[in-house]
Amino acid sequence: MTEYKNLLVQTEQGITVVTINRPKSLNALNSATLDEMKQLFDILAKDEATKIVIITGGGESAFVAGADIVEMQKLNVIESRNFSRLGQAVFSAIENLPQIVIAAVNGYALGGGCELAMACDIRIASSKAVFGQPEVSLGIIPGFGGTQRLAQLVGKGRAKEIICTTNMLKVEEAYRIGLVNAMVEPNELMETAKAMANKIISKAPIAVQLAKDAINRGFDMSLQAGLAYEADNFGICFATADQKEGMKAYLEKSKPVFTGK
Ligand code: DAK
What we know:
The protein has 261 residues and is an alpha/beta fold. The protein folds into 2 domains: 7-201, Alpha-Beta Complex (2-enoyl-CoA Hydratase, Chain A, domain 1); 205-252, Orthogonal Bundle (Lyase 2-enoyl-coa Hydratase, Chain  A, domain 2). The protein has 11 helices and 10 strands. It has helices at 31-44, 69-72, 77-95, 112-119, 146-154, 156-165, 171-176, 189-201, 205-219, 223-237, 241-251; strands at residues 7-12, 15-20, 52-57, 62-64, 100-105, 108-110, 122-126, 130-132, 169-170, 182-184. The strands form 2 sheets. The protein has a 6-stranded mixed β-sheet with strand order 1-2-3-5-7-10, sandwiched between helices. A 4-stranded mixed β-sheet has the order 4-6-8-9. Strand 2, helix 1 and strand 3 (52-57) form a beta-alpha-beta unit. It is globular and about 60 Å long. The site of 4-(N,N-dimethylamino)cinnamoyl-COA has 25 residues, from helix 2, helix 3 and strand 6.
């Protein structure tokens, strides 16, 4: 696989772990890192060896401490628009990846880091994780989807409070309001993320993909349109060998062997 300067990428038994690896800058997202992420996620979308993706941060203290302020402070209007477009393209690529993406949040997830975690399908956080959107302290607003995805996850009132006060959330609070799916001790983080990944891998892959797609697409639709979309994806399941295998195994009281076909 391609070598990256700011990312570590390791695939083992169907799980690709992507580590954002600029620990000296608390894994802040500069354009070079975003370029590499775009390149990588375009490859992973078609990579048959990757059944699930886990994203985490390198070093001891951060998942991602936001967009790179050193780089950002020098941007002019056109460059900042390009930067925003690049970031949004990366985060949309993650959201639209056919595979499920789990964020294993090991520390600070601030600004673009919180937005990155929210672009993932599932968030598991260590007790060291801290979440926040500090953008308005810098004279900007979240620009990688934060105003939209945070409101979708925790509701408009809480999203406005988090963004406009810039209050940082400890993991217990993030869990309480539904920003994270689970919280664990730091030494259990990757183990828990991989256990969840393996559980998902054991299910029918096309059904998992179609469920992710229906949830994502349906979110932007009216209930009626979302239900129609769900019915279409439901119908597609019946074109798969895995639907036949899953139902046969259930009726025979045996364990299904899914082939992803
Ligand atoms: N960018 C660049 N460097 C960063 C950084 C960041 N976001 N966060 C930390 N670092 C660097 C620090 O400058 C420091 O570098 P040196 O001084 O050692 O050279 C090193 O990482 C270690 O950080 P600290 O010494 O500060 O570590 P502490 O443990 O004391 O504090 C902290 C940790 C996370 C509380 C603190 O580092 C901090 O407040 N960091 C900044 C958090 C932040 O404000 N992040 C940015 C959020 S704004 C856009 C779209 C999206 C965005 C922007 C534009 N377009 C529309 C154009 C997104 C914006 C954001 O993400």
